[in-house]
Amino acid sequence: MEPIGGTELRSVSYVDNYQLGNEFQRLIMAPDAGNSLTALLELPPNQAVELLHCETDDLKRHRISAYNNLPPFPSNRELIERAARYSFFATDNSSEPSNSTKVKTEPLDSGGSNPNSSDPTTGSESEKEKPSKRKEREKKEKGSTKKSKTTANQNSEEGEKLPYVHVRARRGQATDSHSLAERARREKINARMKLLQELVPGCNKISGTALVLDEIINHVQSLQRQVEYLSMRLAAANPRIDFNLDSLFSAGNGSLMDYNIANMATPMIWPESLMNGDRQEFQPQWHFQCLSQPAWVKDENGHNLVNSENSLLSFDSSANSGQLKMEL
Amino acid sequence: FTFPQTKHLPPSLSLSLPLNSRTLVMKTMNPHHQQKQPINLKSLRRRFALRFIRSLKKIHLQQNKTLKTTHLGHAIRPNKTHKLHNNGFMAAHRVKMAAYASMASAVGPRRAWTRAVLHRSTRPGSSSQTPVSRAQKLRSLVPGGEAMDMQSLLDETAHYIKCLSTQVRVMTCILDHCSSTAHQVN
């Protein structure tokens, strides 16, 4: 082996901190002290450290294989290679632009038990041409379940856009074709329910599909009631109005931008007030709810414009980032 | 009280309004979405406001026309019907329909619910059973929701909620502006 330089000595000492006792540390740190090891081995101190270095290499190898959560059998080198390749592909797929939206689920089974197994290197491109619907099983001896779950999520979310679904069964779940299809369908529906939850205010805390659906229905109904009420007001106010589009767009759209969402939380006094039919009574209440002001300063316009745009854009970006996260 | 002059917007203005730098930004932000375009609420607002105000003008003109003809022609019909035309529930219904139609046309035919709304004029008869389950309730609420599977129903609901909230905002702003100007005139 090559002569050991100072850096290697230092790396050896780091390694030995874990494995060997303090005595060896002292031996290595002071090789020219004429200690017992060199006396024992009757070797010059360089070669003694070499021996230690070789030993620590094996220990390193052992430790690395232990970190892979695999028993140190020689036969599992194949699996290690495949796992390495698989993780490489997992990251590779996430970084690829999904213009080529088909993602191949890599067959991780050892041996040729799966007749559909193809080369993982050519998998991502040959998969585009194979129109068959594929579902692959996962063996229990395989590595961590984390990888399989992320690929399952990735594949099922990518499968939203594809005509064919590539689904991977997770650990401990039924691998029936029917149940796989149902699970993919359920996952898609749950993804859209999450988006809806973000839309409807106050839905984040509720857990359970049925209650969330109730909230969504209530929200839509309240919005439709608001439209009806507003149209009634507008119809009543129509004869008094001078529709001047220019003035509306100069001032009206300024107020449109600055409009706050705060009065969307409508109290339930509306249906009662509709029964009254007394508009004079209601107007001060309505203006109290409204946060709009008749005087718009241009600086405020710009500032609030940014705010409302940010809130709207943040909604869209959150929805989109939510979808992006699921793809990843 | 002056009779409003009908001002026709030049077509170039209505075409240039949807063009917005935000739409370009948002499209580049999402290279993954090929089928669905993210909604640009600002341009949607403008388009809806334009169309809605135009239709409000039309309704206003219609009402004034009927009023004028009766005044001039010494109408035989009793006054009650004329009052109904102006201040009755039918006017509110017409405004409501105009609001939904203008929102649907502002979005365009790319959504299933907008297509259902735009085709509503031809088929007024709606035979829907009383909703039993939650999904059926949602289907009865969202236009065109009867013949949709659950996934697309949820998609359409999300888009519908966004557009409805925009609609409500614009309508309140128009109302506020109109009521404020009315107070100023009086």
UniProtKB/TrEMBL annotation, chain A:
User: Which keywords, in A-to-Z order, does the entry hold?
Assistant: Nucleus, Transcription, Transcription regulation
Q: Which GO CC annotations does the UniProt entry carry?
A: nucleus
Its chief place of residence is: nucleus
Tell me which Pfam families the record gives: HLH
Q: Which GO terms describe its molecular function?
A: DNA-binding transcription factor activity; protein dimerization activity
Which residue range or ranges hold the BHLH domain? 173-223
Database matches in Gene3D superfamilies: Helix-loop-helix DNA-binding domain
| Biased composition regions of type Polar residues, renumbered to the chain | 91-102, 111-120
Q: Where is this protein found?
A: Nucleus
Which InterPro entries has this protein been placed in? bHLH_dom, bHLH_ZIP_TF, HLH_DNA-bd_sf
- The UniProt annotation puts the region (Disordered) at 91-165
- Judging by the UniProt lineage, the source's domain of life is Eukaryota
Q: Which PANTHER family match?
A: STEROL REGULATORY ELEMENT-BINDING PROTEIN, TRANSCRIPTION FACTOR BHLH48-RELATED
Record protein name field? BHLH domain-containing protein
Automatic annotation (TrEMBL), chain B:
Top-rank taxon of the source lineage equals Eukaryota
Q: What is this protein called?
A: BHLH domain-containing protein
Write out the GO cellular component annotations: nucleus
Has the keyword NAD been applied to this entry? Answer: no
Provide the alphabetized UniProt keywords: Nucleus, Transcription, Transcription regulation
Q: Which CDD domains match?
A: bHLH_AtIBH1_like
Where does it mainly reside? nucleus
According to its UniProt entry, one GO biological process term is: regulation of DNA-templated transcription
Question: Which PANTHER family does this chain map to?
Answer: TRANSCRIPTION FACTOR IBH1 (PTHR33124:SF40), TRANSCRIPTION FACTOR IBH1-LIKE 1 (PTHR33124)
Q: Does the keyword Nucleus apply?
A: yes
Where is it located?
A: Nucleus
The organism of origin for this protein = Opuntia streptacantha
